[in-house]
User: What shape does this take?
Amino acid sequence: GAGVSQSPSNKVTEKGKDVELRCDPISGHTALYWYRQSLGQGLEFLIYFQGNSAPDKSGLPSDRFSAERTGGSVSTLTIQRTQQEDSAVYLCASSSDGMNTEAFFGQGTRLTVV
Amino acid sequence: GEDVEQSLFLSVREGDSSVINCTYTDSSSTYLYWYKQEPGAGLQLLTYIFSNMDMKQDQRLTVLLNKKDKHLSLRIADTQTGDSAIYFCAFRRTGGYNKLIFGAGTRLAVHP
Assistant: This one.
């Protein structure tokens, strides 16, 4: 597609439910990032995929969070047993390989846990 | 994150210059970036500087890099209300992953 696409754009869920957030990166981009942006907080790194390498999961806040990237393209971020503190905007970005490549961001998914 | 530090908030008067500062820890960084996030939008690349440069100017934007102190700054001349946004500095960690590391972002508020 023309840009990074995230769905849904908004998600309201009940505490304790599982949610799946989807990211469609720009075609051909080998790198894919997930970030979380909470109200009044900064950008928090969650996970990074690069090609066929093992993902860097060092930013995932708990074992309730997981992500996968199928076929080197679409990625899904799953949050199990959601808590109110999970409420945030979840941003996905992709970039091509190389030393100086721009990361393109999606519009984000606003998750509200009630 | 702890690899990149930015102050969270800056308020300036319209027409004044804004200076947004960033410090980073990774001395191997080759490219350093400034991204801008306007209200309700995703992040967009604003400008970047290669590590062998001290300064880069692009219209109203001036990027200064002090490699010795690991300090990056973005100066916006003649700040306008349309410059109100969150500004993120970032660097690309070299070796292995080439992962982009972002600061937490500085919210710039421009008032009349």
Observations:
- Chain B touches chain A at residues 1, 6, 8, 30-31, 35, 41-45, 48, 50, 88, 90, 92, 94, 97-105 (CB under 8 Å).
- Chain B is about 0% helix and 55% strand.
- The mean pLDDT of chain B is 89.
